[in-house]
Design brief:
single chain; 150 residues; alpha+beta; four-stranded mixed beta sheet; globular; disordered C terminus
């Protein structure tokens, strides 16, 4: 078989966001990585056969925040790097925006950077979810507490 293992699940850009996201969330939510859109959205069997299922089964979201006890979906997060400027990616992003909105799933788009601030991510999460996260001093330290911040 032609398969080999990838060294890491996350790309360099996704990994740079993941640590500060963990710090910002402070354990209040589960952070799921590289979630298939078809695991967040669904449609009837008839609509699936009409091709609507295929439109979501081959796409993924960078991160999804869920409530720990129930895994209820709280927020989808997409990191938008330069590849999102390409026409086919803009069409994909528009489709994703509309599909998530129709389904009632909140989406936070974050411009990709080489490093992130947990405080800024916390502010973005506050706005996207509509609730406040604890101040940084009350969040338990993580293995990412020394991650570079802007």
């Amino acid at each position: 078989m032609p398969y080999t293992s990838r060294e890491t699940l996350l790309s360099r850009g996704e990994a740079a966001f993941h640590g500060p996201l963990q710090e910002a969330v402070g354990g209040q939510y589960l952070i799921m990585c590289k979630v298939r859109v078809a695991d967040v959205l669904t449609c009837t069997d008839a609509d699936w056969r009409r091709g609507h299922g295929g439109a979501i089964s081959q796409k993924h979201l960078d991160f999804v925040l869920c409530e720990p006890a129930s895994t209820r979906i709280v927020l989808a997060i997409e990191l938008d790097d330069r590849s999102h400027e390409a026409e086919h990616r803009r069409r994909r992003d528009l489709f994703l925006n509309e599909a998530l909105e129709v389904a009632g799933v909140r989406l936070l788009r974050v411009k990709a950077r080489s490093n992130y601030s947990a405080a800024i991510i916390r502010t973005l999460l506050d706005a996207a979810i509509g609730r406040s996260f604890p101040a940084e001093s009350s969040i338990p330290a993580t293995s990412h507490e020394h991650a570079p911040t802007p």
